[in-house]
Amino acid sequence: MIDDFRFGRITIIGDLLLDQYISGDVSRISPEAPVPVVLHDGLRCVPGGAANVAVNAAALGAQVHLVGLVGEDESAQRLKDSLNLWPTIQTDGIVSAPDWTTITKTRVVSGRQQIVRIDVEKLTPLSDTLQKRLMEEALRAIELSDVLVCSDYAKGVLTDEVLKVIIAAGRAKGIPVIVDPKRRTLDAYAGATLVTPNRSEAEQASGLSVRTDDDVLKVAEILSRQFGGDVLVTRSEDGMTLWQRDAPPLHVASRKSEVFDVSGAGDTVVATVAAVLSADQTLETAVVIATAAAALSVSKFGTATVSREELSRELLQEMPETGALVPVKQAARIVESWQRHGAKVVFTNGCFDLVHPGHVSLLQAAAREGDRLIVALNTDSSVSRLKGPTRPIQKEDARARVIGALRAVDLVVLFDDDTPLDVIRTLKPDILVKGADYTEDQVVGADVVKGYGGKVVLVDLVDGQSTTRLVKGMQSTPA
Question: Which of 56, 81, 169, 262 ranks highest by number of CB atoms within 10 Å?
Answer without folding.
Answer: 56
